[in-house]
Model the fold of this input.
Amino acid sequence: MPLPPAAARRRPSPRAVHLAAGLGAVLSMAVGTVLSSHGYGEPLPRTLLGWALTATGCAALLWRRRHPVPVAALVVLCTAVYFAVSAYDLPLLLLASAVTLYTVAAEDRLVPAVVLAAVTMSAVTYGEDAGPGERHVDDASVFLPAGWFVGLIAPTVPRQLIAEFARRAERSGPAPG
Done:
């Protein structure tokens, strides 16, 4: 039986794609945690708390378009608590934070995006320094997230400026000529 043309094929909804990506991320995090947990000796309740925080942060991504700032704040809170209580370095919550911060900045909410990025970096640095395990503050815990956040938030500024310039030009009418 021949396949229908590409235009007639049904595409998955964006929500289904986000859900599949979130479930894939949580599954990869669980497998990675189990495989890397040898030698740390972290208590099981603390590991389960880390998994719950990661699952909550990833699940919140489903609502980031509808409520960008509250979702970003929730993901940043999950990230802050995770790095303070877990012995494992897990970049998945930092990636979720980066996605939500980009969404906040893309929704023309630059100040909350910058504030939440600073809070995320401070929380990760605190967690690296004071958290359990043998972690320490290094370039991966400070400069890598700083580069991510600058790289994700800064590109939204020219787009916002161009949009504002276009709105002002439209209000002022055609140029004399």
Observations:
- Helices lie at 14-36, 44-60, 68-85, 92-106, 110-130, 139-153, 156-172.
- The mean pLDDT is 78.
- The first helix runs from residue 14 to 36.
